[in-house]
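ping. complex inputs:
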Amino acid sequence: MPVSPADTCLRRVRPIHVVPDPKAPGGLRASAAAFEDDSDGSSMSVCLRSVTVAIGLTDASVVHGKESRWAVAAIPVQILINEEQVVEPNPIVDPPTPHPCDPAHALVHGEKRPKGRRDRISKASPLVHIVP
Amino acid sequence: MGEDQVTYAPALPSSAWTLTGNQFLSKWRFVPASPSVRRLFEPREAVGTAQPVLDAQPTDPWLGSAARRMEEIANLSQGWDDAAAPSIAPALLKAVTTFVSSDLIVNLPNRPAIVPTFSGGLLLEWHTEVVDLIIESAPDGEASFYFCDNETGDETEALLGDRSDVLTAAFVKLGLRS
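pong. complex structure:
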């Protein structure tokens, strides 16, 4: 089933990838480096907000168990479409280490090497939760 | 840029540009009218002899935080992203350390965030009200940049030596605005 352009992808952002930006809410945003494909060659992992809500979770659930200063960036799917990305639902089943958001897991396929593309995605993706 | 006047050195191949304070700046021929901006770009002995922040007792608080950041990045081990991200090569760390401790960067009112990439490179990111500038140094030494002028909406992405006019404009805006 295709992902709605009105949906939102939630991306875990590690503390070292949170950077200051006076234009962003709270003065912080994710670095362009946070929106690369995984280093093992797989596409960028996200969680679909529509699914997390449907199973009774929140944006904060995405960083369940993570240490202080981990963050969640909310990426509008429409922005990803505009940047020639394709979002594919990819629920994780029977993982070795289960996570509450496994049913909401999705992959974002597409070319992400241009820094401008990653910066535009970052600009449009506010940090909606930071682990205290 | 107001009354600033800019002239440029002859074009150099991209391979001639690296992320070190002296080599990056030595190709510039920039004569701004504003004393505050001129100070940023005047060729000086210190530019070519900038010391890595890790070796110095920084008097500028930002240099201290940059040194701690570089140490944090240097301590990232293979798989630091819980996948296959390589550690950051010492040579790359040294080059970027020298660059961020150069007069060009230290004299700017806006200093960059230093960020590791999953591919083993480093990003320097400036985000202000009017400028988004990212300089990327890849593990193979290739350096490139992305500049978005938020006043005009213009965006440029190029190898470091290919669009010195745009990079000059970006640094002038970083020097003028907080």
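The CA atoms of residues 91 and 141 of chain B lie 9 Å apart.
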